[in-house]
Amino acid sequence: MTGVIVTTINLTAIYALVALGISLTWSGLGFLNLSTGAMYAGAAYGAWLVATNISSNVVVVLLGGVIVGAALGALICLTVFLPLDGKPNWELRTLTATLALSFVGTNIYLWQFGPQFKQFDPLFDFIREFRIGETLVQPSKTGTVIATGILIAIILAFISYSRIGLGVRALTQSVEGAALVGINRRTTAFAILGVSGAFIGLAAVLLGQIYFVEPNSGYSPMIKGLIVALLGGLGSLRGAVIAAFLVAFAEAVTLQYLGGSWVLITLFVLIAVVLIIRPRGIAGVLEGTRA
Amino acid sequence: MPRGREDLLHYAGLAALFVLALAVPFAFGTLSILGSMGVFLLLLSWSISWRRQGGDTLAGVRDRSAWLFWGMAGVIAILIPIIAGTSYFLAVMVTFLIYLSWNVMWGLVLGTAGLQSFATVAVAGISAYVAGYLSVELGKSGNLACVGGGERILGVPVFQWWVAIPVAVLVGLIVGFIISLPAIRLRGIYFALLTIGLVELARAYVVQDKCNFGGGQGLYGASSFIPESIAGDLAGYQLAYVAAAGLAALALIIYWRVNYGRLGLLLRTARESEPVAEVLGTDIVRARLWVFLISSAVLGGAGGFYIAYYGSISPSFFNFSTVLFLFSMIMIGGINSPRGILVGTMLLMYVDKRFVDVDPPEARYVFIGLLLFVVTIVARDGLISIPDQIRRRRGVQGRGTNPEGDPPEDVGAIEQEAHMPPGSRPEPS
Question: Are the beta carbons of B193 and A271 separated by less than 8 Å?
């Protein structure tokens, strides 16, 4: 049982990161970024290149992933958000455009890096492993939780205290209100997508050291991130964290008692049940409240 | 210039284009006819849209000049086995026609009803799998481990393709009903996720169920509608082509009946403005349920056709890349019009087959992805809508209003319904 709890906490950290990325984009800019998976894999490859070519120092590699992720977020802003902002058929077109970019991205990775798995050297070797009862807590898990905590703290500080962060918060609450007080939606969009890319990039490196990196490795985290974001209620950061915990717990229990191939099945049953009972998710705002 | 001479020139130009498109396969190989005819139909549709006076969009009210387009599509369908009647090309065409019938039904849900459903592949695949399972298990012909009856009546296996297809329709209907129960309540993106999840769920299930569905390698050996005597021959492919053309025609007719009928009108009104639809007394949930059921039944039938043609199916059917490929077809062509769906399916089918052995293989997908991306950014509703978009922009800019020019898509539809007498509240057919 302690094994389940350790896995849960580890996965909660990672899923919360991806879901925060998705949720922030939705609440701030009103579109669902389906190229999240390609951004994830791109950041993982970026960090891998940094690790093999520059330095395998943990801070450098993590920073590499975060920066590549943020850059890919800015690229999405440039190619999808700016051209489509305010155009008719917005919802379906942003969905399609991000899906198309994810298709392009995945195939470029396949082209450049091949289908072989890439693996990071252990990043958190310097942390001592320890035991809780019978369960061994690997350095990678301790490191994941610490790194996630640090990034979330930095981003929260950025959103709470910086001027751009103020704009982001205003935009997530009311588009008209933000426009009235003179917030530039287009500049703020870069900040929002950059921050969400940073979250996704960090998640990619953290998960990449446990699993492998391959062109499609972003797909499953994206689906889980989407599940978490929808379960928590799109646009709610608090809900995303609670849902990340729920999903991680469901996954850990399934892994322990049913096996890996059942994980997605369990998760979809979970989300179907929650959405039927409560269509807006755990802490989501009602449809229509958001302009 | 008098209208008569202009018309004459116009038709002469189209005829010249058609001859040119017909000549292409002789220069560049049979496969290129799919591409050249796709481009021809796109240009034809553009010219029809461009010349139509008093512009209305492709979606919505029935388009009276569409006969030219569909007439030409029919002529091409008849010409193809004559000009390019090789076994390989006919096989490509059968796949194309099966895709077309799925895409048309997807268009009904995604375009007409505006429900962001990705369940198309799931419904078709589950129906194909169940039909294949019964065909293999009860017909006792294929590879499955848990073989059951193999019941025969007078020496004939009872479960043949002509039982499998109706069963697939039924399965499609049931799956569609089950999905629609929670899904109709959900909005937009929630619906998208749940249906993407369903595809993944179906894949995960068939992979782990080795016993009934053959696990990772899938199932094979299902009963085929092509008699064994001509299977693999040109005659077999010709038969399959005719059958698949019938399937696609059926799907198009059903699309037509729904989209341009009362149900389509209700759905488009609800898509543009739910409050308006509610004020008009539309039962939105019921209308959406109906369109979902109709499309699922046809999807199931087409899934049954798939298994009855190939005789096999594997879990890779449910891969996300299948969903993406079909999605690219309808989005590039134009989700809101049957013409767009036809043209998009033709063009992408051609690109996919033409560059199948290009090196590196990823280049083909990068190209398709970029194409989808560019079309999405540039056109509001797929390639087919470009003339409407240009004309609208010009017309509206002249009056100096919203530069994107975005009057509600179906003012006509809403007005038409508003003028109906109060007693005649429409019932979905």
Answer: yes
